[in-house]
Every structure is written in C-alpha cells, then in structure tokens.
Amino acid sequence: MSKQRRSSYFRDLWANIRGSILDDEGGGLFRREKVIVFMFSYGIALVLWLLVNLSRPFNLTVTLPVDLEGIPAGKALANDVPHEVTVNVSGEGWKLLRIYNNPPRIKLRPTEGTMNFFDVVREQMNMFAGVDVAKVTPATLEIKLENRITRKVPIVANVLVKTDSRHGMVGWPVLTPDSVTVSGATSILQNINNWPTEFREIKDVNDNIDIPLKLKKPDQIIEIGPQEVTYRAKIEEFTEGEVNVNIQTTDMPGSQRVSYSPPTITIRYGIPINEYSSSKKVHMFQAYVPYQDILTDTTGFVAPLLALRTDSLHVRIRDYQPHRVAYYTLKPK
Q1: Does domain 148-236 have CATH number 3.30.70.420?
Q2: Cis bond before residue 82 (omega within 30° of 0)
Q3: Domain boundaries, the chain
Q4: How far apart (Å, rounded) are the C-alpha atoms in residues 141 and 153?
Q5: pLDDT in tens, 159-196
Q6: pTM above 0.90, yes or no
C-alpha cells in the first residue's frame, strides 16, 4: 500500500469513528430528553391522581394526646385519666392528611363525676371543617377530685454501679437533694413513702462518680419537684488481705466447753489501699457459733458466722474457709 493510499485510508477511518461517536452522543441526548419528559409526565399524573383520589371521602383512626388543664385550685385528680384518646374520623383525604401529619392535642378540663368525652373531642375537632368524628375511645370518663396535699419524701437512687476489678465504692452514695416534694390527691399521696430515680447502669467505673439523675416521671395526677438530683459516690482502688480468726462460742453456759476443728477460719477481704496499713493494727473480724446451733445440730458440723468489729474501715469480706467446722463438747471441769 502506497503512502498516499495509507493516508487516505486512515483519514476515512477516523471520519467513520468520529461520525459514530457523534451519533452516539446525539442518541444519548435524545434518551435523556425522553427520560426528562417521562419523569415530568409521571409527576403530572401523580399530582392528578392525588387530586382526584384525596378528594374522595376516607375514614381514619388516629391517636391524639390528652392534656389536663383547668383543675380547680386546691383540688387534685384521685384517679388516672388517659394520656391519649383514639378517634375515628371521616372526611376528604386532604383534610384527614392534615390531621394525620399533625395530630391535635385534646385539652381536658376535668369536673367531678362522669364526663362525656365524645362531646369534648368532637367540639375541639370542629376546627377541622368538613371532618366528622364517628367514634371516641374512651367515650366517657369517670373523674374523681380530692383535696390536694403536699409531702416531702426521700429519694431512692435506682442506680447499678459496676466498678472494674481493682476498684470499689467506699461508703454510701449521696443524693443532692435527698428528698422530693410530691403534690396530689390525699388518697394517692398517703401511699407514697419515697420516690425513685430513673434506672441508670454505670459500668467499668474507676473514678469518683458525680452525675445528674432524673427522677422517675410521675403520672399526670402527681406533681414532683425538683425533677433532677445529683448522684455522688466515692470510688477507691482496693487491695486484698487475709487473716486467721479464732472461732468463739456465744451464749454458752459457763459450765460448758466447746472445741472446734480447725479452731480458726481464714478470711480473705478487700480494703482500700490507703486503709490497708490501718487494718493490720485492729481486730476487724469476729468468727462465732451460737451455742444454740450446737444444741440443735445432729451432724457434728456447724457453720461459723462472721461479724465486722470496726466501722472505721471500708472492709469487704470476699471469702472464708472452711465454711463448716467440726466441734467437740468437753466435760465441765
């Protein structure tokens, strides 16, 4: 093939490729135009479908929240009232869609006796023109009002603290404030002796705790204050100690004698590191067997009891051995 013919061949080949590319690009533009037209038509069809169908009558069941208001001064509810009400309504789809997306709150002004809750709900739903209330559940409410009283009760911390293996809580947690004011009907409050916090679990603790805690939320018929307290607990690093303690017999007549085998038990205990040296200077434990246990025993073995003899150290008994010992009663001298 001559040079001139090769040049003409490549020129024609390039022209064919370029034409093919332009044709593909044109086809791509055409396809995109078809997609745009399709999506636009689909949107118009959807809007028309909604206009036609949502103009038809529908039935809808919704759950509406109930707010208490207007309780007479010095009075309080003595029975529970529903936090929400189930309402069956009918009307055009557009109007029901508004209720579904933004449910109204039903305001309840309780009065002593039986209330027609259906009428209360229907009256407040009149704000939605063209919407009919077909059913209300519950349709009636039984309202009991009593004199309101106020009491102050202690707060109970509903907290589970889990320290890591090397730490432990020292002393008792402190709540600030340690009591809460509760207000409500006399018959309700007379059975309330304390008020719990919400449950809280704290894991892998290795430092002092100082956290806010919310109090358990009351029912609508009870008011509390404050709503939140501060929970504080002291956490220390612990070490382990071991001590042998002689077994004694308590409440034993002076003429009796009892011997144990073994005569001591080994107690393994945990204690804060900064208290360990002090623990070696005091007799922290007492191991004893009540004489009555020996009189009623038929096996020849009894279980010693342990008592902590100091309240100045934060000691925790972790284990002791043996859990049961043999005993021998000796003749009086």
Answers
A1: no
A2: no
A3: 1-53, 57-143, 148-236, 239-330
A4: 31
A5: 999 999 899 999 999 999 999 999 999 999 998 999 99
A6: no
